[in-house]
Amino acid sequence: LMKAAVSATHGPEVFGGFGGFAGLFDASALTGYRKPLLATSTDGVGTKIALAQAVDRHDTIGQDLVGMVVDDIVVVGARPLFMTDYIACGRVVPDRVASIVTGIARACEATGAALIGGETAEHPGLMAPDDYDVAGAATGVVEADAVLGAERVRDGDVVLALESSGLHSNGFSLVRHILASRGIALTDHSDDLGGVVAEVLLEPTRLYTTPLLEAIGHAPTAGAIHSLSHVTGGGIAANLARVLPRGSWVEVDRSTWSPAPVFRALSDIAGTSLESSEGTWNLGIGFFAVVDAASASAVADLLTAAGIRTWPVGTVATSARDLAGFEQGAKGVDGGAVRLVGAFAD
Within 13 Å of residue 224, how many CA atoms lie on the same side as its CB? Predict the structure, then answer.
């Protein structure tokens, strides 16, 4: 059921075809690198799966998985090579598994990653018959002297925001808590959200890898991007702080964008402010690019032309100042300091 979609991701680098015990990838092309570094990432989709299960729609979860995994690799400037996936379920339903994997394969094809292997494991007695979880891992390559990161960032660099397609795959435990506390079922129609709750919230994660690699590697923007941040778990400020050098700070100006209606609707249902969810939801920003000031407009134009609305939200500074109220580093990274300021645009 999934063979055609998976095979469509296979270029001449993939050996052994479909269904082997291990996937094989020809690494000969890496001999053309001066010092190739392999980049790897692994992740899952989290509790967003509960929405897919509620409405028995499983064709978008695969794109969410690829977004969470492959788009983490491009953060260091790496080009994805291949990906593998893992599905655990209480009972194998062939059409459901094929729908999930077909979604993974289509997103892999869009990002240039070969889907070279996977596993579906049936766990009766441990998981309910219709329960499942999905995870994946990907590997990419980047030239050692082209790795993006905080060490490239300079005073005066411009921080660009890349628009998200919605919640992506983070913050759904909060979403489900909000809905449950208001007695709203995932299968209910919500006027606030503009449709069946789960259907609206299943909007798949935007894929950033291909446009970002174009901006990283080709004129007129080659070399302009100094660091990238994928806005996932931890929210807006914490994820940006991870890719800034220690001693630097950024004030992200809320007035430069208006959070999408889905975020406003959820905040209204919860009776809370948008600002209170900045550490959980992306609020309309799926990625940050920290770029050379002279090339900021060119980078923004290229990404916007590729279908990702991109705009400046702040500037990197290294001057001494009181950093009370700033998010300083995250996830064990002693990075820069970030806080959001101002009010969101209407």
Answer: 24
Say which amino acid occupies 24.
Answer: L
Q: What are phi and psi of 149, to 5 degrees?
A: 170, 180
The strands making up 327-330's β-sheet, listed across from edge to edge, are 249-253, 333-341, 327-330
SS3 50: helix
Name the H helices within the chain. 3-7, 49-55, 61-73, 94-111, 172-181, 197-201, 209-217, 235-241, 261-270, 296-305
DSSP-assigned letters across all residues of 283-337: TTEEEEEEE-GGGHHHHHHHHHHTT--EEEEEE-B-S----TT-EEEETTEEEEE
Please give the structure tokens belonging to residue 252. Answer: 């992200």
**Long-range Cβ contacts of 175-181 (<8 Å, 24+ apart):** 175/201, 175/266, 176/47, 176/50, 178/266, 178/269, 178/270, 179/269, 181/270
Q: What is the pLDDT of residue 163?
A: 98
Give the count of alpha carbons within 13 A of 286, CB side only: 25
Sort 265 into a burial class: Cβ within 10 Å, 0-12 / 13-18 / 19+.
middle
pLDDT digits (tens, 9 = 90+) for 280-324: 999 999 999 999 999 999 999 999 999 999 999 999 999 999 999
Can you tell me whether residue 339 is helix, strand or coil? strand
From CA 76, how far away is CA 139, in angstroms rounded? 12
pTM higher than the cut 0.85: yes
Instruction: Tell me: pLDDT of 170 over 90.
Output: yes
Task: Give which of 24, 338, 301 is closest to 150, Cα–Cα.
Answer: 338
- Distance CA(137)–CA(330), nearest Å, equals 22
> What is the tens place of the pLDDT at every residue in 12-59?
888 876 777 888 999 999 999 999 999 999 999 999 999 999 999 999
Strands 114-122 and 132-143 turn out to be: unpaired
**Backbone CA torsion sign across 71, 77, 78, 80:** positive
Q: Classify 229 as helix, strand or coil.
A: strand
